[in-house]
Design a protein that fits this description.
Helix content: 10-25%
Number of helices: 3
Distance between the termini: 9 Å
Number of strands: 7
Largest sheet: 4 strands, mixed
Radius of gyration: 14 Å
């Protein structure tokens, strides 16, 4: 749950965004299921879709991934311990597990923050 996560605030402070309903300059923490927005954020912070777990496309790259079972990660320049996967695989897993991408509004930090969380969508509805 977000309000138990020291890196993310209580869910009522999170602004849900889509391409049709974008963030404002004052929204600090955003949440989306919009694939295009996730990919835009990743391009902005140079993040590559990855996993640490064994999937159909390859073996696990770390012994234990402490992520609550999501299995999805991003690799960043200079920090790439996870196995790269395609956007198709990443987004299929994201949808199958009904996840929501929660992240810092890149318009409110300079340089844009790479901080993010993947949470079960139902956790944000509480």
């Amino acid at each position: 749950m977000l309000n138990n996560d020291p890196l993310m605030p209580a869910h009522r402070q999170v602004r849900h965004v889509t391409r049709e309903e974008p963030a404002s300059e004052t929204d600090t923490i955003l949440a989306t299921r919009d694939h295009a927005l996730i990919r835009e954020w990743a391009a902005l912070v140079d993040a590559k879709p990855a996993t640490g777990e064994c999937t159909e496309s390859g073996p696990a790259t770390v012994l234990k991934v402490n992520d609550g079972g999501a299995g999805l990660r991003f690799n960043f320049p200079g920090a790439a311990p996870f196995r790269l996967i395609s956007w198709t695989e990443w987004l299929d897993h994201f949808n199958r597990h009904d996840l929501t991408f929660v992240y810092d509004n890149p318009r409110t930090t300079h340089p844009p923050s790479a901080r993010y969380r993947l949470v079960r969508s139902q956790e944000l509805e509480r």
